[in-house]
Structure formats: structure tokens, C-alpha cells
Amino acid sequence: MYSKLSEGWCLNLNPWGLFRVLFLFFLFWNFFLVQIQAGEGRQISLTQKEKAFVKSHPVILVSNEMDWPPFDFAVGKHPFGLSIDMMNILGERIGIEFKYVNQYTWEELVTLFQNRKIDVLQSVYYNESREKFGRFTKAYYRDKTIFVVPADAGNISDIGDLNGKTIAVPKGWAYEPFLKKHYPEIPLLLVQNMEEAFNSVIEKKAHAVIELSGAARYRIKKNFFRELKLSGWFKHYDDNKYKSLHFLVRKDLPELHAILEKALETITPGDLSVFEKKWLGYLDLYSEIRLIFTPEEEIFLKNNPVIRVANEMDWPLFDFVKNGVPAGFAIDHLRMFGDITGLEFNFINGYTWSKLLEMGRQGEVDLFPGLWKSSERETFFCLPGPMWSLSKFW
């Protein structure tokens, strides 16, 4: 025998604020949940001057960091990463060869660029000071800058939570001058690279590290860093919008800058989704979703940046704990929702299911990511609608 039941999120907050946010999320998620096909690049129309530049510069020297996966890294002397793939497809469409310069630190690559020994720096954050010696192209990738902290530490919802605590930062990275300027009270542990920064947190030499979300996820997953977790969004650094990666072209090569700008116009959502699936392990279908909230909802999001979520210990594959970390389909779905809205979730676990329900009734838990609907539960909770339908067998 079986019966068909609906499974959904259950809310225990001022119901209408988060209810409407969830409704908008499901509406946009279902709209964008389509198969994206990689498109063929459009033909690039170059001026005579630009064609002459390509003919006289058949090889362009491009930076290649050693250790910033999955965007820009090297194995031996061979370049890899999302940004490398992006450069290569641009080179094919332009008809120009990119030669990658590696075996140097980031600081050394910047110096080579300033001394005109490298033509293009890639995987670069926009920084006003860098405009003095280069021309930025338009962004080719956007993501959030987040805090990475020990798995057993509290969540960081604001940089102020790290006052008096040490942040590990690679020397010469844009984080260093920003933190020194805006947060001089926060001690910095300057290290050689991002790998050392992550290890510094694991070894308790620092309390946190700042990193682009996609890069942090990749590093934690690839290295099985169960001692670390992703925490809140560093909104001040990102200026409350997604951080972007650019190419930086030497100022004395304006033709190359113009050519790269034209080539970037040929990059389709399909191209980008292929790169993201290859290097990030998922199709970032929701990254371009922008929900429009009412003033009341904006106030709700501002006043409730962290939502307490019930996390069962043992309900795979939907909601469970694996190696001390919340896991499951419902948890992943909830995290995607957080990426869109900017909400942060504090997962409450270590309790029995009946205890979690009681905590919900007492207002100690705000949201249940997977709950069977019943008239008794609707007395205490607001259910915005089913997340999926399941067949229950007995």
C-alpha cells in the first residue's frame, strides 16, 4: 500500500514575511529550472587596426596563478581552471594564442604585469588602484565573498563578529588593503597563498579566512576539510552585490582590451554553464535570479539575517547530519534559497525529532526544511506549499 503525501518547508516566524519570500523563490526557481545548452560563439567583428594588432601579436602573455582553484591554478607548469578555459575559448574565437606565465606568486605576477613582462592579468577583482596600470574588461564571473570558519565555531553574519579575532589573508591580495583601511582593529595573519590561509584556520592560527564562495566550496570539497564550514556573506567588501572577476590589460595595449571586450560579448549563458558545471560541479542556474521584495519584506530580511533551522540527525537522503555537517536534499535546496535571498541559516541539530518539534512550538526554531503536512501542525506552523511530492510505502 502507499499514499501520496506532500513534503514542504514549515515556518515558525512572522508568517507573511518569509512566506512571501519563499513563494517568490519557488516561482523563480521553477522558471529557471531548464536545460541550458552551450551556444556557438558569434563571429567577432574587428576593425582594421585590431586585425593588424592580432597579426603583429600572435602570442599574448597571460598570468597563471599556482594555487587558486577552481578558477586559476597550475599542475606542474600546465594551467587549469574556469578562468583558463574562458581565456582559451576567447583565444580561439579571436584567432590568437595565449601563453601562460606561472611558477610565481600573485605579488610577483602583478610586478611582472606592471613591468610589462605580462600582457594580461586574469581572475582579477576590480580595485580602483589597479586602474593606474591596467584596463579592466567587463566581468566574466560573479559570486559572493564569504567567511570560512571552523566547523564548530558560531556563524559569522557580519564582519563585526570578528572584532579582536585574526583573519588569515594571502599577501598582496585585495583583501589585505581593504581590511587594513576599514577594519584596522582586526588582526591579520599574512600568508603566502590561500591554501596556507585555510590551513591556518584548521591549525587554530587564525579564526577565519575570506574567500570567493565558489573557490571556498571547491577547496573544502576537494581537500575534505571537514574542520571548516562556509559562513556569512562579507557584504561590505562586495558592496552588497556579487563580486566580479575581470581581465586586466596593460594600458599601452588598448587594441587588446577592445578585442577582449568584443570576444566576451560572444560568451553565452550556455558557455558559462559548461564551465561552471566542469569546475564548480553544478549548474549555477540561480545566480542571475533577482527577486523583487516589498519594503516590508526588505525590512524582514534586514531584521532577520539568520534563520534557525531544524536539522534532523538521521533522515537520509533528505535531512540528516554527516560527519557533523548538515546534509541532504532538503538542506541543499535551502542553501540555494539562501544564496538567492542573502539569508543565512543556523542549523539546530543534536536533538530527537520530537524535541525539535517541541522547540518549534516554543519558538526556539524558525523553520523546518522537511515536514509532513497535518491539521495539528498547521496550528503551530505556517506551510507555504509543497516542495515535492513523495509516495510513502508501508
Could you please describe the fold and organization of this structure?
The protein is α+β, with helices and mostly antiparallel strands. The protein is built from 13 helices and 22 strands. It has helices at residues 15-32, 48-56, 82-94, 106-114, 175-182, 194-202, 213-222, 235-238, 254-264, 269-280, 295-303, 329-341, 353-361, and strands spanning 2-11, 59-63, 67-68, 72-75, 78-80, 97-101, 120-125, 134-136, 141-143, 145-150, 167-170, 188-191, 208-212, 228-233, 243-250, 306-310, 314-315, 319-322, 325-327, 344-348, 367-372, 386-393. The strands form seven sheets. The chain has a five-stranded mixed beta sheet with strand order 12-11-13-10-14, sandwiched between helices. Strands 7, 8, 9 and 15 form a four-stranded antiparallel beta sheet that branches. It has a three-stranded antiparallel beta sheet with strand order 21-1-22. Strand 17 (314-315) and strand 18 form a beta hairpin. Helix 1 (15-32) packs across helix 11 and helix 3 (82-94) crosses helix 9 (254-264). The longest helix has 18 residues, at 15-32. It is elongated and about 75 Å long. The termini are close together.
